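Appendix B, record 7
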Amino acid sequence: MQSNLKKIAIMLSIMFILIASITAIMTFANLSASQHFIGAWIHSFIFAFLILLPLGAGIFITLNKLINRALPSWSTLHKNLLQGALMALIMESFMAVITVLSGHSYESINQFSTLFFNSLLYALPVGLSLSLLMTLLIKPKLEKHLFNTAA
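Structure tokens (predicted):
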């Protein structure tokens, strides 16, 4: 039981850092002069952590199954890279929508689209970099650590 709590604590701390950094970038990218950064960021962060994190877990599991079925001949590394890139794009799109909806008033779909793409394009390079970092470095070490803890 103790090792399961440790595993959950490790995963939640990693997700906490990822969500905090990406929502901070998105909030900063669209911050108007009259808004306070901390208040706008905390609102986006809490929503992303409490709502999007569980949703992301479901998307991750579904994508993993779809990629493994659709691309059985691909190497594990290629599958992980594809899954990481798709997860970054999907989840950052969700977070960009939430950041725009929670932090801005907009008068047209064009204005909403501009704010959305501004958030997404600022944060996407960071998200893709973090995805590569997770896929190539952190995930293998974490799996090794979690496997050793379970044994």
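Remarks on this record: The helical segments are 2-29, 37-70, 76-103, 109-150. The chain is about 85% helix and 0% strand.
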